[in-house]
Amino acid sequence: MSRRAKLRLLAVVYLTGAATAFACAWWLFSPPATTPEENRYGLIENWAEEAAPIIAANPPFQLVDAEGNAIVQDNANANVRLWDGVVKARGSHLRNYPQQVGDCVSFGVKNAVEYLFAADGERDFREVHPSYFYGYARVIVGKGAVRGDGAVGAWGATAARDGGALFFTDNGVPAYQGSLARAWGKDGPPKAFVDIAKTRRVKTIAPVKTAVQCRDAICNGYPVTVASMFGTTDIRERDGRMVARRNTQWAHQMCCLGYDGRGPVAYFYVLNSWGEAAHPRPLQGEPPGGFWVTIDDMQWITSTGDCWSFSDLDGFPARELDFNVFGQAKREARAVADARKTTLSF
User: Fold this and answer.
1) Digit-coded pLDDT (tens) for 110-127
2) Domain ranges for the chain
3) Which class is 32-345 in CATH?
4) Predicted TM-score of the model (pTM)
């Protein structure tokens, strides 16, 4: 073998070894595509007991008109998907990366807040940090009572309202990691970040106790976190979509972002926090990593669970959503609310 051939062979071996080493390092140190089984949940054992007084202290979800009077809408046959506006304006879905520890509550809140803020063009689709909600909920709202992983849906909703939201683009904010979630879940988020986040509070939260309340919230642009014992090992195609059947238990929080009542069965779209590949591929352009549930299952979730709707306005004003004019529905509703406050001040 010539000297040149030997050098060529050595180069191939070296490059192959380097590529193999790089692949191994990437496999070892990159975040998993889906959440490992042991870290998939995150409601503490007595979550219902802890949530009860917070639920009782907050008025239930109710739509209001421009004068602040309670109203009833007929949204039974509506079709509203809160990701439509995001995709139209951004060109793609928001990221759905997996939780790494038992911090599902913070991811349910994160998803709700991101889609709530996305309806306001001023927010510019900035991602919010789930670990901030996790730390604020456990330490400031929950008073540090939990030692292991986990939180309560009502704590997470309160954190979004009282503590606000931290953006990844804020100065000095670290990337999400399970170790960071546990550190902030033990000691709380740094005070400097709390001071920043409190400038972006969710204005109103309300417990959601029925599927109709959940439907009306979604149809008016208000995402809903859903913490319950709903669980499934059966997700299959039904009515042209991937539908989950309740057949097991998860102590888990997710987020509801869509409603479709056009067919004989009404469905809700639930986004999970286990990664985009955790569940079967969506069939209708939904954000990957979620599934549809029937209205009967959503009634079970809301009536037995710890579920919350979020508003970036004072209360929950009824509004027409126009995703072709992104952010306009939110701005118009805010203008109506501001005018009502001005009228009441005279």
Assistant:
1) 999 999 998 765 556 889
2) 32-345
3) alpha beta
4) 0.85
